[in-house]
Write a structure and sequence with these properties.
Mean pLDDT: 81
Helix content: 25-40%
Number of helices: 5
Low-confidence stretches: 26-38
Bound molecules: guanosine-5'-diphosphate, magnesium ion
Structural class: alpha/beta
Strand order of the largest sheet: 2-3-1-4-5-6
Strand content: 15-25%
Number of strands: 6
């Protein structure tokens, strides 16, 4: 199974810009999936030779009350359900909002790997903005989806968290080696087999086609 990385966060924090940068030029297949995942875009991506699917969520409007709680929880629960890694994007320019603290708490409780990604950090001198987000994470990651700053460092850490590919637990077949004797009719296959086995296991006849079925030893 290809690992899924979900991008969640408020509207306008820079999720789609980051998504586009992560999937890059590669395929850029985005597909709208019906039902609850209507406003989500899926794209194929790879980093350090590891393939994954990135999901951009529609985001939730911070100003709309009432339906907000439902929308937030829908997005978050879906991400928790389907993703191996969650990128919780917050806006480095606007600072931490109370609702983001709640979301952070829910995500932490989920047990999933969550990165707090502080967007719109376009250059190193903006990194001071990270301090605002320490209540969410000890290690907020600065990125600029627009300019690419910090994205490589983020992806290095993200792909490290993917589960190892399943290795087959099937043991190689043990026991004697099986040998098949093949050839045109009447060339001496059965005689050879009898010779090898030291017994008359196979009816030998000079009429072609006497041995109809495979003979198992
Ligand atoms: P979304 O609603 O979370 O998907 O946010 P968008 O990706 O659509 O971006 C919202 C706005 O933030 C747009 O005007 C972007 O140009 C701007 N934006 C996104 N990423 C960056 C960034 O890294 N740096 C800066 N300066 N602006 C950004
Ligand atoms: Mg968007």
């Amino acid at each position: 199974m290809t690992p899924i990385v979900a991008i969640v966060g408020r509207q306008n924090v820079g999720k789609s810009t980051l998504f586009n940068r992560i999937i890059g030029q590669k395929k850029a297949i985005t597909l709208d999936v019906s039902g609850v995942t209507r406003d989500r875009h899926y794209g194929h991506a790879s980093w350090n030779g590891k393939e994954f699917v990135c999901v951009d969520t529609g985001g939730f409007p911070s100003e709309v009350k009432g339906s907000l709680e439902k929308k937030v929880s829908e997005q978050i629960e879906l991400a928790i359900h389907e993703a191996e890694v969650i990128l919780f994007v917050v806006d480095g320019r606007s600072g931490l909002l109370p609702e983001e603290k709640e979301i952070g708490q829910r995500l932490r409780m989920s047990g999933k790997t969550v990165f707090v990604v502080v967007s719109k950090i376009d250059e190193p001198m903006h990194e001071g903005r990270l301090a605002d987000f320490y209540p969410l994470s000890k290690n907020p990651m600065p990125v600029s989806g627009e300019h690419g700053y910090g994205v490589a460092d983020l992806l290095d850490q993200v792909v490290e968290k993917f589960p190892l590919p399943e290795t087959t637990t099937e043991k190689p077949e043990s026991g004697p080696i099986r040998i098949a004797i093949l050839g045109r009719p009447n060339v001496g296959k059965s005689s050879l087999l009898n010779e090898l086995l030291g017994e008359n296991r196979v009816v030998v006849h000079d009429m072609p086609g006497t041995t109809r079925d495979a003979t198992l030893t």
